[in-house]
Amino acid sequence: xxxxxxxxxxxxxxxxxxxxxxxxxxxxxxxxxxxxxxxxxxxxxxxxxxxxxxxxxxxxxxxxxxxxxxxxxxxxxxxxxxxxxxxxxxxxxxxxxxxxxxxxxxxxxxxxxxxxxxxxxxxxxxxxxxxxxxxxxxxxxxxxxxxxxxxxxxxxxxxxxxxxxxxxxxxxxxxxxxxxxxxxxxxxxxxxxxxxxxxxxxxxxxxxxxxxxxxxxxxxxxxxxxxxxxxxxxxxxxxxxxxxxxxxxxxxxxxxxx
Amino acid sequence: xxxxxxxxxxxxxxxxxxxxxxxxxxxxxxxxxxxxxxxxxxxxxxxxxxxxxxxxxxxxxxxxxxxxxxxxxxxxxxxxxxxxxxxxxxxxxxxxxxxxxxxxxxxxxxxxxxxxxxxxxxxxxxxxxxxxxxxxxxxxxxxxxxxxxxxxxxxxxxxxxxxxxxxxxxxxxxxxxxxxxxxxxxxxxxxxxxxxxxxxxxxxxxxxxxxxxxxxxxxxxxxxxxxxxxxxxxxxxxxxxxxxxxxxxxxxxxxxxxxxxxxxxxxxxxxxxxxxxxxxxxxxxxxxxxxxxxxxxxxxxxxxxxxxxxxxxxxxxxxxxx
Lengths: 258, 322
Prior knowledge:
The structure holds two protein chains of two kinds. Chain A is mostly helical. Helix content of chain A is 78%, strand content 0%. Chain B is α/β, with parallel strands linked by helices. Chain B folds into two domains: 3-219, Rossmann fold (3-Layer(aba) Sandwich); 229-298, Protein-tyrosine phosphatase receptor IA-2 ectodomain (Alpha-Beta Plaits), CATH 3.30.70. Chain B is 34% helix and 28% strand. Chain B contains eleven helices and 14 strands. The longest helix of chain B is centred in the middle third of the chain and has 16 residues, at 169-184. Chain B is elongated and about 75 Å long.
């Protein structure tokens, strides 16, 4: 176990270092949420005036949504790096070494979680600049970040699982495109749940993206209901455990196929 | 004889019913190079995958460095190094970082890790490029780094899966001397797969030829060549011959064995090439077959391959049955 943790850390360092060497990627991953926040924030500003929306300021409403959405999208593409590693033989090189099997995936998930936290902090600060307020304080912000990172870890695990099963970038791109945007729009990232069509509200109940947004928004609210926060965090934890388990199953399938 | 690789009856069938290995057995002597020869799809890489614990055999047993590859994979992994066909280097990391990470997953730390890394970088002529990302390396440099990564943790047994494929002639010769040095000075047992008969002939103490998942010949290169008495006669024809025309014409030439026609090339074996060539040319002329060139050669591993696998060994694996 100790060995697995140490190896995971080595892999995390490797992924992190490679990431830092791609300035373009860093730029895009920082600019994209900024664009979303500013663009959607401006575009839908008046939406709060709809009766029953339930928020006074759209930027207050939107910021936790953008934090979650950013983690979701980063995580959705996590498997691309793994496909690259498989194709280059990097995965096989580590499989014939004593390196812990789990570290090949957990290293990516840990790196994703670290990046997720950094992105969350940046979006939260940017939100402040454009006028968002966070009545829930530090505890609320921590809960939002935790929810977003848990969601990211779960989706990242699934993304890596798909990478192991498909081993094709085309499949990965198709699946991610097919899944990520609908998951976003079938949640309350942009729109109050009460104003969604009924069927969407029903679907959103089971949507992990929505759990993360609900947890974050409730935690940031004045006198938020922490039973909602904790229950959603609980759902996300279960989702993460199941996703990680599925990813390890996918890993076995991969190993059997070589 | 001390053996470091000992495989018996390895069978592997992939999903979809492709039988990659159909009972491969081989034994590699400690401290020597063992060559595994054969065309693509013959089962070389699958054999390596099983011996390196990457893949499990459906049947058969194998011991590497004294450990069972199925029951004691962790022990095997510590004892072996592996340079796969696909290099497995991280192109975004520097040469040094690739080496150090490899050492770390084998439990190397601190000064030992750093000095071993530096030693290998210098030895493989990569010291100047050590802190550049691998993406900027030439093919030859990458292959050298592959080998350095493979021996970073000082393994007892090293697997090289087509170590010289894609290298230019100069880099190939470099690689050969490096392989010879590893087996000679450092006492590593090396199992090397290759397309190139020349390479196996030069480096391997023993070799096995695999074809369609089976070992069709095994032994020392000289013994294998020695089994083929006489010379090889190769005749290049002006045009691909009509069916059977050439074989019929040559059937009457005495002392001629192992006739094979492949496209415009005719091969045969004779006790004495020099004595048989006139008769061969006369027979072809009588049959109206125009000849472009004739060569006579001592037996090579090509001929061994031809004899055992029943087809000419081609780099591009165009298989022409006799």
